[in-house]
């Protein structure tokens, strides 16, 4: 597992790889490789013991050619400026590949939330929301949950913004609770788009997903829901992992039962009679489908040489380094990229934003039907580009589609001044 690959440089390399297949001027491509602005701020927050602690925080607004900036806020001790820049860039092309009218943004606070009380996290969140206040808004920049954040944090941000602005604007953030203006189907959205991409991928490749063996690295919200929904297609989820390690049962695991065990014990390790493995072993297991659903850079070039899966569907952002992509392409491993596979989160966030603006809310069945239509249409666009441009892999095909859409928007808008 690589901690050394710079995610921002990985993003730029992916853009260059795809741009080689497009008739776009180099100066326009260069513009699309850098964020338009990055906020770096230091938050001073009162602790429960009366002390004051400082936290570094970031918000990157990468590109707004196709609409308001859109992207999550993560709480993690490993957050860096380059990571946030990369994630905001991936959001640009994720929104473009599924053709929803957003640009890309991303935010993060350098913090381990497990070390702080709910009250401390609320003060931290509201402090960040105050710093974001001039930058965000339903027509400017719309944050959402990410790693270690969820409905609670989005509700706090919304409330802080509305209080300071003396207004009601539920569309300022997405991923809220239903009671605060959230959307049905939002919690399952990223896992659902991962499942839909896996289903379409197996169909496109002429394979049967029923009975396919599946390993899922990362058993947070996206990973466990993807596991559950893929299991419901008839596949066999034989291995899952979280930060504590991995478990394996060749006869298949019950994803819901494993989730309940993790909720009670804090990890998947020790589940029933399952065999214990390392995360690295899970990533190299001989399975039909591998779903990386943790953090970026999970598979580097060295580890990719040992990957035995036939198909990879990326539920995480940037789980493969460019070197890993090259190795897996040479090995004829079919990788279906994050900017399609995990786009369910931002797609249902878009639905939430639309509902907030209309003050008219959909039921979960409609949300899931609309999501399926968008993901399957985007999958068709990806495979059409894969065949038409004769690109080496599906990631490059996705970027060809996405970059062309962003370039078209920029060209139509014109450059001002």
What does it look like?
With 417 residues, the protein is of the alpha/beta class. The chain contains 15 helices and twelve strands. The chain has helices at residues 7-19, 26-31, 81-97, 118-132, 151-165, 189-204, 221-232, 255-265, 279-283, 301-304, 322-330, 338-341, 344-358, 364-388, 394-413, and strands spanning 37-46, 52-63, 69-75, 104-109, 141-145, 213-217, 236-242, 245-248, 275-277, 289-292, 311-313, 334-336. A seven-stranded mixed β-sheet has the order 9-8-7-6-10-11-12, with helices on both faces. A five-stranded mixed β-sheet has the order 1-2-4-3-5. Helix 11 links the parallel strand 11 and strand 12. Helix 6 crosses helix 7, helix 13 crosses helix 14 and helix 14 packs across helix 15. It starts with 6 loop residues before the first helix and ends with a helix. The mean pLDDT is 96.
Question: Kindly, what is the distance between the CA atoms of the first and last residues, rounded to a whole number of angstroms?
Answer: 45 Å
What structural class is derived from the secondary structure elements? Answer: alpha/beta
Q: SSE order, as H and E?
A: HHEEEHEHEHHEHEEHEHEHEHEHHHH
Total helices: the number is 15
* Uncertain parts: none
For the biggest sheet, the summary is: 7 strands, mixed
* Total beta strands: 12
The averaged pLDDT comes out at 96
Strands of the biggest beta sheet: in what spatial order?
9-8-7-6-10-11-12
- Give the percentage of residues in beta strands: 15-25%
How large is the radius of gyration? 20 Å
Describe the global form. globular
Helix content: 40-55%
């Amino acid at each position: 597992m690589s901690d050394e690959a710079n995610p921002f440089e990985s993003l730029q390399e992916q853009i260059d790889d795809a741009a080689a297949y497009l008739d776009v001027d180099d100066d326009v491509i260069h513009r699309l490789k850098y964020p338009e602005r990055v906020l770096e701020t230091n938050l001073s927050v009162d602790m429960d013991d009366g002390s004051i602690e400082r936290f570094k925080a970031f918000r990157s607004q990468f590109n707004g050619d196709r609409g308001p900036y859109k992207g999550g806020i993560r709480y993690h001790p490993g957050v860096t400026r380059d990571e946030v820049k990369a994630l905001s860039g991936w959001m640009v092309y994720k929104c473009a590949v599924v053709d929803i009218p957003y640009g890309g943004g991303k935010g993060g606070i350098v913090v381990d939330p497990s070390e702080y009380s709910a009250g401390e996290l609320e003060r931290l969140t509201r402090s960040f929301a105050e710093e974001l206040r001039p930058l965000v808004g339903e027509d400017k920049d719309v944050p959402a949950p990410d790693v270690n954040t969820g409905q609670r944090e989005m509700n706090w941000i919304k409330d802080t913004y509305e209080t300071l602005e003396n207004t009601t604007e539920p569309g300022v953030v997405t991923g809220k609770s239903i009671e605060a203006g959230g959307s049905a189907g939002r919690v399952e959205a990223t896992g659902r788009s991962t499942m839909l991409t896996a289903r379409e991928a197996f169909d496109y490749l002429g394979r049967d997903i029923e009975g396919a063996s599946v390993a899922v690295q990362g058993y947070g919200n996206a990973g466990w829901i993807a596991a559950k929904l893929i299991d419901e297609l008839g596949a066999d989820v034989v291995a899952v992992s979280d930060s504590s390690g991995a478990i394996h049962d060749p006869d298949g695991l019950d994803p819901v039962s494993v989730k309940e065990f993790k909720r009670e014990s804090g990890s998947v390790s020790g589940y029933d009679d399952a065999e214990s493995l390392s995360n690295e072993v899970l990533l190299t297991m001989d399975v039909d489908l591998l779903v990386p659903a943790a953090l970026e850079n999970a598979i580097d070039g060295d580890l990719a040489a040992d990957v035995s899966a036939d198909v990879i569907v990326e539920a995480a952002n940037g789980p493969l380094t460019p070197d890993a992509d090259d190795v897996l392409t040479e090995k004829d491993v079919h990788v279906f990229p994050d900017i399609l596979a995990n786009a369910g989160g931002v797609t249902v966030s878009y639905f939430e934003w639309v509902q907030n603006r209309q003050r008219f809310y959909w039921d979960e069945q409609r949300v899931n039907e609309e999501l399926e239509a968008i993901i399957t249409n985007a999958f068709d666009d990806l495979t059409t580009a894969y065949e038409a441009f004769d690109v080496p892999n599906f990631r490059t095909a996705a970027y060809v589609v996405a970059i062309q859409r962003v370039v078209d928007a920029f060209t139509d808008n014109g450059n001002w001044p």
